[in-house]
Design brief:
alpha+beta, 4 strands, 11% strand
Length: 165
């Protein structure tokens, strides 16, 4: 039979202290660490949100805040009076344009979404016309030397002004 050696009080205290330190270390390092969100994750999320907003703004099937109600028809007298105005003369030349379009052109207003033909009707043919393609499709630039704004852009060759400066 084997004899075991008894531990001194000092050895027992040392062992208990070591066990306490080990237990504290296990408790400290076994806690699940809070997951930190990496900056790349936030960047990807922001890009996704802005991409969705951009696509929604370019998609014509998404309703916008413009009033899409049909205009009330004019009486014969009102139509005859309108036809005598500058806007009415423009509408007679361009029967597919709306009354608001003709009035805007007559008032020399410029807006994103107007047709290139409206721009030419309003300020004449451009002094410079440039086609550029930087890999994302063709973009037309129409510039007038002595006008402000002087350059207009058609990003997708649909004949509608997408931007100007």
């Amino acid at each position: 039979m084997k004899k075991f050696m008894s531990l001194s009080k000092q050895d027992k205290e040392r062992i208990e202290e070591e066990e306490r330190v080990r237990a504290e270390a296990r408790a400290k390092y076994s806690k699940p660490e809070k997951r930190k969100t990496k900056p790349f994750t936030w960047l990807a999320l922001l890009l996704l949100i802005f991409g969705i907003i951009y696509i929604a703004s370019k998609n014509p099937s998404v309703p916008n805040s413009q009033n899409t109600s049909l205009p009330t028809p004019l009486t014969k007298e009102e139509q005859a009076a309108f036809n005598k105005t500058k806007a009415g003369q423009i509408c007679l030349k361009h029967p597919t344009w709306t009354k608001d379009d003709c009035t805007g052109v007559a008032d020399k207003k410029i807006w994103v979404g107007m047709k290139y033909e409206m721009l030419v009707e309003e300020i004449g043919k451009p002094d410079h016309s440039n086609l550029s393609n930087y890999g994302s499709g063709s973009r037309y630039q129409y510039c007038w030397d002595n006008k402000n704004p002087n350059c207009f852009y058609d990003d997708n060759n649909d004949g509608i002004i997408d931007a100007y400066n």
